[in-house]
Amino acid sequence: MESLDDLFRRLESLKDDRLLVETTEQYLADPGQLVSALFPLLLSHNYKAAYLIAKTLLAHQIEAYPMIHFARAFGGMIVGNIEDEIQGSQEFARCMDMIAPEHQATYYQSILDPLFLPLIGNCFHLGHKGMVMRLLEFLKAGSPLLRSIFDFSLPILPLNQNELRRRGWEKAKLLNYPQPPPGPRPVRRAVVAIRELIFPHLPQSRLLDLGPRTAAAMNAYGWQTHFHPVVDYLNMEREYRALLEICRQQKTELLVLDDMQSEDSLTLHERSTFIAQLRQELPDLKIAVVFFDTWMVTPQFLIDTATIADVILEVTSPSLPVWQHPACRNKVLHVQLPHAHAFPPPTTPLRQRPLFLGSVMKYNYHRALWLSAIEHFQLPIDSSQSSHEGDGKSALESYGLYLQRLRETTCSLNLTMRMDLSRIVTGRCFETLLTGSLLIQEHTPDMDYYFVAGEHYLEFHNVAELASITNFILQQPQEAEEIRRRGYEFARDNYSDDKLVGIIDKFLFYP
Known about the structure:
About 50% of the residues lie in helices and about 10% in strands. The chain is of the alpha/beta class and about 500 residues long. It has 3 domains: about 5-150, no CATH class; about 165-170 and about 340-495, Glycogen Phosphorylase B (Rossmann fold); about 190-340, Response regulator (Rossmann fold, 3-Layer(aba) Sandwich), CATH 3.40.50.2300.
């Protein structure tokens, strides 16, 4: 039986608007059924059908559903009806403001994000920044958070370094993990099992550097560490068998295990079985499970992991409520993985035009919004887009070149919002400061656990504050240089490889 959205797709293909409207009127007794058809029509690019359905519903005073106004606004943009685009967007925003915040977030993630992600990505990469700005207005209508971030009416105010430092220290929650006792370090046998590629499902993906970095830093610390690249995601049982044999042969004391980003029940069962067998054969073994993108993981998966691991290592999200769960207490270290590089003091003068260096991909397409806004308002910020495609170099060699690029940048813009509108701490936050560059960081609440805004880096909440920062760097370069130096020195003193491995050593082996 033909579904309602399939019916309207077929009708749109006939290019008979009158027939489509007449068919819509036949279903007015059940407007919810028509509203339910709007999203799949929009998702399949049947914009004209969705637009005419919305216009017909509104003509019959059926207007309680946010999706109706959204379809009117978006369809108005497509067909060139500016009045429908503007008024529909205003009504959509009004309806969204009447919804509870948790429902707004659900609506954004389930409706707006799937619709706009490919559109914004395509427009941005094709150079249509003006269209990205128009699409941004729809997102702002559906998200009060984005309205506050991209509020173009806010004044550009001068910055005062002392005030920035005061506010930064007021909200700081700096973590201070202890180090092992002084004296000779026992030589521990460790295995680091982390995925080989950044994106395992893409054969052309660049090699992931986190595993080789961690293994190299642990060896420099004085341990005997073996790196095992995880490559066979379609057969994790085989990977676990290989790991089990390695741990047996080396009588491993510490296994650093990639979380593998899979909550499939079969994979979870395989992982639990593997860890249980490890525990049986090597009862003194410590297991550290690494989460690289905690924002993507359900709380239950984190809880389940905490029950079978000795420690969870993560850096992106130390403020998550799940860490207060009994299973997670005293089981989590919010710590960056080591870098396997030395970081000498900066010598290059501060560049007065910040540089954004990074990729714009589907999981961080909000960067396209920022970069388009920066270009639209002609802020003195440059950008150099990178990709995660393989470069033919080893993971550590490629990572070293990336660190050198950051060091040469001297002033780096970091954008960290993800698809669910969370703003996370990324490895680049640490890498920028360690290389001696001035970090200009999108407001990320969890940064307060690692660095102090205004003291170690410059933080912005919205476009106006970013503009204020660019003015500050141009007009007060010496004060900007002071922040740069303090950020480097704090990062060097607190997040060196020796300190980072020492934190894990102390936690696991010196209770």
